[in-house]
Amino acid sequence: MRKFAVLAAGCSALAVLVGLGAGRAWFSLPSGKIDAARASATSDELVTGTIASRWPVPGGAPQSAAPAPAILPARATTDSPMSAKPTALPAPAPAPAPAPARQTCSNPNALGISRTVEIDTTGGPGLGMSQYRDYDFLQPGEVALTFDDGPWPVNTPAVLAALAAQCVKAVFFPIGKHASWHPAILKQVIAAGHTVGSHTWSHANLASKPFAEAKSEIEKGISGVVLAAGQPTAPFFRFPQLRQTPELKAYLGERNIAAFSIDVDSEDFRIHKPDQLVAGVMAKLKKAGKGILLLHDFQKSTAQALPELLAQLKDGGYKIVFITAKDKVTTLPEYDAQVAPAQPTASAAKPIAKVIRTVD
Questions:
Q1: 3-state secondary structure of 159
Q2: Span of the secretion signal (predicted)?
Q3: For the chain, which ranges sit under pLDDT 50?
Q4: Which pTM value belongs to this model?
Q5: What is the C-alpha to C-alpha distance for residues 20 and 107, in angstroms, rounded to an integer?
Q6: Domain locations in the chain?
Q7: Which residues neighbour 130 within 8 Å (Cβ) at sequence distance 6 or greater?
């Protein structure tokens, strides 16, 4: 196993993004304590082997009567209080996504992007062979990187730095509440050229909730992410713990939002030793041969392990596929209003001179 070099702590990790083009960046794996356990709502992701017993059985009854979407070829062109509330912005009108410009990679030995695919989300396609079998678009040896549960201080910037060092792009599925707490970090994800979807407002298990409550979790998450981003994001969604119902899957179809499952689970929510995490992912990829890989930019160990994981993907001959969306998501005004920062009420205070005066 290779040695890892020093992981920049805190916001200083952002500086790495600027200077990484000169060569390969390495991060160390401190032997200190791992982050405290996450809240119970985010602690129990599914492992790949147990998905089939939860939902749904591949090849079962159609989940939506919406017209089948298509995966287009790659473009040719190169409920707690909020501690940091972003400024409310008007909901932007939906518009087709512009063709992404291919960014120059200054690292000649970088893993890089093999190809970029664009998803037409009309009808709400399901992607990820663990749950959905209609769109098997990855070729042998291809890997799509996805990150859940951010944005999060220190960890997300370190993930961005590692991705930039290898000139690769990923899909991020932020939690709406986290995005509202850390909008500046979410903007860094977007500025780096990654695709941003959503992952509910609070990472609730939607399969255990009444439909109206689950719908609200989905929509508030979308509105919260768009508000924090300051611009429309992709119509991509991942169910927390991959738990869904036919009704919720059909609802995403009505909203023309793609549902993302996975092919390979890193299990980084429970494996907190970076070397073990890398070894486990590489073993699973060798067995699967390809796939959508689930990681979490919320996790410290993932940020620490990512430079080595990307290096081993390159050494193993794997190719990175970047997933983009044909269109942008449209938020619903009702839920925009629910996540917008509260406006200050008019003060009933008297003039200060009528309340306070110097008497001595």
A1: helix
A2: none
A3: 1-91, 94, 97-101
A4: 0.71
A5: 8
A6: 109-342
A7: 48, 51, 52, 242, 261, 262, 263
